[in-house]
Amino acid sequence: MSEPSTANLGPSLTPPRRRNSRRDGRAAILMAGPNLAMFAIFIIVPIVGGLYLSFTTWDINNGAPKWVGLANYTKMFSDPIVGVAVGNTVKFMLFGVVPTVLIGLGLAMLINVRFRFVGAVRSLYLIPAAMSFAASAVVWRYIFLDGPGYGVVNWVLSQVGIVPPNWFVSTTYALPALDVIAIWLSLPLATILYLAALQRIPASVIEAATLDGAGPIRRVVYIIWPMVRPFTVLVAIVSILSFTTGSFDLVNILTPTGGTNYATTTLIFYIYQQSFTYGLWGYGAALSVLQIALISGVLGVLRVFYLVGRRA
Amino acid sequence: MMNRARITHSVRVLVATLVGVLLAAPLFYMALNSLMPDSQTADLTPQLIPNSVHFSNYTAALSGTTQVIYSRSFLNSVIFTFFVVLLQWMLCISGGLAISKMRFRSRTFITVLLGVSLFIPILTTLIPTFIDTLKLGLINTYPGVILPIVAQTGFGTLLFRQYISQMPEELFDAARIDGANWWTMLRRLVVPLAKPATGAYVAISVLTAWNMYLWPLVAASSPHLELLTQTLATLGETTFGDTHPQNIVYAAIVIVTLPMIVVFLCVQPAFIRGLTGSGVE
After folding, report:
1. Segment B112-123, tens digit of pLDDT
2. Is A131 within 8 Å of B24 when comparing Cβ atoms?
3. Per-residue model confidence (pLDDT) at position A17
């Protein structure tokens, strides 16, 4: 599971009304100081420093960074693997996040029902959230195992007469297989969030619609979907963060070379490889700038959608 | 009519249960395989029910020639998780109090900054964060693995800000009249009253820290700092996974995952509360 760090999107930023002219400047520095100091040292400094490093070449074990201007960026745009890695990342996200959101809503609707053991059944849906990408990678590697001694998936396929692929070695099926694992791990969060949204729809609203003759599909389209729509952005944000984690953890564990012909080389994996394997730290920093722009850009746009949707 | 509604309800319950079992199937599969004899997991046909139950796989995963889980890694994971959650909680609850109830310039700026940081996960800043930590001389030390994660305070601080800002101003005024300073108010007022928020925060952070892979991988590459996620990652690698008995590998995953499943089942309500957060309302 990845950090669900954006779940709490906070109230609007209006300050509380002012009762008197009390100022807590000095006390506030002491109170928030440690937090802000750590934030500055390990988040602000790396971001600013990373931007600087992206204009240099540097062997971290040897001497100081050398200024090379835009060289890393021109290299980035002529490096064909960067395009492949961005493409893989987009594919991994798109074919992972969209199903997660849709299936998550479906599952939430399925368990938004009262019965005796509903708590236990809901737990079944949510337990995978307790598992790490690393642990599930190992389990799913066995499930997808290719012969001799097929895993469950390939055994079933071979029983019905399909020649099963060697999933993680294949250039076609490796990325989808990783997506399946990441979807499985991300579904619990999506389901939890949607369930919370559904439970806020008054039962009377749905009953009234049912009495008026609205079938299941029309209930979903006209009542449930509009009411959970603001949550969809939140589910998408949380899922994207989860898939960002997965796009490294699963790739590095299950396809440690980045797949056959870069089939599973995602941007974060490529950055890791360029820096930690080949020692190209300046280039890694430039690619990191691209990565922050892409991921944080998408998340930022979604965040704006969320705020606008909530006001509307 | 009534009858039909009851049948629909029963079908729905049945479908919901079956889908739940299917979703949790990999976990059951893992648990069942961890109890099988070696001959059965090595069988060419995947098996579901153990012929005989072998709890000895667990001791084999923890000791002897087939050992995969070392007490050192287990201890490291516990230390890492404990300090990440404790230190970050201290930063977040005090920071949350400051930006919700205290008045100072740049408060809005700091709040926005923390909000923006939510969208810059450490994965995207891996290289610069690594170099930063390296230059501080902290790579391959406990503080080097722990502190950069502790510093990811955006989520927690905003969670506590949200919770504390709903506490009535009168409480703080009363405490102030009694002569309490902010530090006393934090300890006597905010910490006890914010217990539900702390529960939600701890639930999410414990899981996140225990399951973290990438940062420990680069920041703690020396064997004596290895965490359990790294141990598991090794099990996933082709060469290892193929040569090691599957039943013992499964047992190892259960050993690592079970504590979190237990934690998760106990704190599930808090977890859900934290995730859906008041931010959604």
Report:
1. 888 888 888 888
2. no
3. 52
Identify the pLDDT of residue B87: 96
| Cβ within 8 Å of residue B58, ≥6 positions away | B34, B251, B254, B255
Selected residue of B14, B18, B107, B119 to mutate for chain A interface (largest A Cβ count, 10 A): B119
Average confidence score pLDDT of chain A: 85
A293/B contact by beta carbon, under 8 A: no
CA distance A193 to chain B (A): 6
In chain A, whose CA is at the least distance from the CA of B21? A124
Yes or no, beta carbons of A115 and B111 under 8 Å apart: no
Where do the domains of chain A lie?
54-129+187-311
Domains of chain B with CATH codes: 75-196 (1.10.3720.10)
In A, which residues are within 8 Å of B235 by CB distance? Answer: 138
Contact B46, A151 (CB under 8 A): yes
Whether pLDDT at B203 is above 50? yes
pLDDT at A7: 44
Note whether A16 contacts B161, CB cutoff 8 Å. Answer: no
Nearest to B134 by CA among B229, B227, B213, B218: B218
Identify which of A195, A123, A98, A253 has the alpha carbon closest to the alpha carbon of residue B23.
A123
Nearest to A254 among B30, B236, B277 (CB): B236
Sign of CA dihedral A162, A168, A171, A175: positive
- pLDDT of the residue at A5: 41
CA distance B35 to B130: 41
* CB contact at 8 A, A39 and B132: no
pLDDT band for A284, please (50, 70, 90 cuts).
Answer: very high
Mean pLDDT of A201-230: 81
Provide the pLDDT for residue B236: 75
Facing B214 at nearest CB: one of A150, A249, A303:
A249
Chain CA centroid to CA B118, Å: 17
CB contacts < 8 A, A to B, total 346
Residue bearing the bigger pLDDT, A303 or A252 = A252
**pTM of the predicted model as reported, rounded to 2 decimal places:** 0.89
| CATH class of the A54-129+187-311 domain in this structure | mainly alpha
Dihedral sign from CA coordinates of B42, B46, B52, B56: positive
Pull the structure tokens for residue B60: 């084999």
- Judging contacts by C-beta atoms under 8 Å, the chain B residues touching residue A282 are none
